């Protein structure tokens, strides 16, 4: 990490996790790093008004944990010391695919089972401790300031939300937009005479509901989380995890308009319709600590800044403001962390980074691998519109084989979760020895199932439970075992 100083100021728009990660690496290259946000940030420990996702489960993948630790040495142990439970993504998380549990195996993948406010609190505390970093809280961001030729951004226009004074110009040598999905950079660029960035969207019709509980018994049997994932046959899933404050956090979701209700009785019935009974059984011995809260996520979004022919100097974009992944796969915070490391790589000379080079590296090194992987999974759901190319179909077939083999072999599970956790690149599972192991276990599993020795809970879904929730169970499709991993 470079210690070069430019004697200049960087302004980060947005103080959520992506903005904090960006500020962390900018603090090594700029004398002054200012974070501007509409919320009160410093000292806040609960959900924030302008961050609705803070009321729901936010997963940090294993690669994200490693990147966070690289930026803030020792932070993982600090979080655990604050009452956050942990485990291994492949060894201590109970993964169910179509009701079939993947065989567990410890893979060296650290889970940080922190609630979003807890994680944000620790990252913000470490970022705020940096001498260069300061906050401009409760300020709206009005627009960019540029040179007369509009070729370089030189600052931002902001205004207090408390009615204190009028519009103010904050000068900056670099502005980083980390304002999330609602980023106004596309509009600002058009107003400055630049082309509108191409946006790629995919309608998934996702909604999820979150509630926290105090358990009166322990259904985990040493595990950290119970995760039945959605499938084309039953587009419903859940994450039921231990978290900080001796609580359990449930986020249950449905795709393509099949959405969980927010009334308590309806939510219990919905949970009963999931592919396995584990969570519903556990909730019979749990006390709700809050009301169910819903969040709707109709489409994924990717802004193709890397394809723009012209882009002003002095401006970069990061986090959800560039790409908003399907949140079921828990890739957002990890992509933000890796995006910050990409930004760091473009600060090593002490000069302002060149946007085209930054966006190119961000796309190829950070966004493309998870985007392509989850796109293939999303397209296994017949109602999701998109081009099912030969490459996509091949990826789906391979993933189906891996998931089938993982039911019988923990080493396959470990390799699969290392890929899903973004620790290993996708081609790591293409090695001949691994391919042979997958094929052997697919054949072995098929023989075992025919002989009646299948894995517990091997049915693809629970028709009787689905019927009890008012939904007709769908017949299994050929791609039943092609489902999400996070």
TrEMBL record:
Residues 477-486 have a biased composition (Basic and acidic residues). GO terms for molecular function: monooxygenase activity. InterPro entries: FAD/NAD-bd_sf. Residues 451-486 are annotated as: Disordered. It comes from the Bacteria. Keywords: Monooxygenase, Oxidoreductase. PANTHER family: THIAMINE THIAZOLE SYNTHASE. This is FAD-binding monooxygenase.
């Amino acid at each position: 990490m470079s210690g070069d100083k430019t004697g200049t100021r960087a302004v980060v728009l947005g103080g959520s996790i992506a903005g904090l990660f960006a500020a962390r690496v900018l603090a090594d290259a700029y004398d002054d790093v200012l974070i501007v946000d509409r919320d009160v940030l410093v000292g806040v420990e609960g959900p924030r008004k302008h961050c609705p996702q803070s009321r729901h489960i936010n997963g940090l993948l294993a690669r994200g944990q490693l990147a966070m630790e690289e930026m803030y040495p020792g932070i993982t142990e600090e979080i655990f010391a604050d009452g956050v439970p942990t485990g291994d993504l492949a060894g201590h998380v109970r993964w169910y695919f179509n009701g079939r549990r993947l065989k567990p195996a410890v893979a060296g993948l650290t889970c940080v089972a922190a609630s979003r406010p807890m994680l944000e609190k620790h990252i913000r505390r470490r970022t705020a401790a940096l001498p260069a970093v300061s906050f401009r809280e409760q300020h709206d961001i009005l627009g960019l300031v540029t040179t007369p030729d509009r070729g370089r951004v030189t600052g931002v226009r902001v205004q207090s939300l408390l009615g204190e004074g009028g519009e103010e110009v904050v000068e900056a040598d670099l502005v980083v937009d980390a304002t999330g999905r609602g980023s106004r950079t596309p509009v600002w660029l058009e107003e400055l005479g630049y082309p509108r960035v191409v946006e790629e969207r995919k309608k998934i019709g996702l909604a999820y509901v979150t509630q926290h509980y105090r358990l009166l018994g322990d259904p985990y049997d040493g595990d950290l989380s119970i995760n039945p994932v959605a499938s084309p046959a039953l587009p419903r899933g859940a994450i039921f995890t231990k978290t900080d404050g001796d609580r359990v956090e449930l986020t249950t979701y449905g795709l393509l308009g099949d959405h969980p209700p927010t009334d308590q009785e309806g939510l219990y019935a919905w949970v009963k319709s999931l592919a396995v009974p584990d969570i519903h059984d556990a909730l019979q011995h749990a006390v709700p600590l809050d009301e169910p809260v819903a969040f709707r996520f109709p489409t994924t979004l990717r802004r193709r800044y890397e394809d723009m022919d012209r882009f002003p100097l002095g401006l970069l974009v990061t986090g959800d403001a560039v790409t908003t992944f399907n949140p079921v796969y828990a890739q957002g915070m990890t992509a933000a962390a890796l995006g910050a490391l990409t930004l760091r790589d473009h600060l090593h000379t002490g000069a302002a980074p060149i946007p085209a080079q930054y966006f190119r590296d961000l796309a190829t090194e950070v966004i493309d691998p998870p985007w392509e992987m989850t796109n293939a999974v999303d397209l296994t759901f017949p109602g999701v519109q998109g081009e099912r190319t030969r490459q996509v179909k091949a990826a789906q077939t391979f993933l189906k084989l891996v998931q089938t083999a993982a039911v019988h072999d923990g080493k396959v599970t470990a390799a699969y979760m290392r890929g899903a956790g973004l620790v290993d690149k996708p081609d790591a599972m293409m090695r001949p020895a691994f391919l042979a192991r997958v094929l052997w276990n697919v054949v072995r599993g098929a023989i075992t199932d025919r002989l009646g020795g299948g894995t517990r809970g091997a049915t693809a879904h629970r028709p009787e439970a689905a019927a009890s929730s008012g939904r007709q169970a769908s017949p299994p499709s050929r791609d039943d075992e092609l489902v999400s991993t996070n």
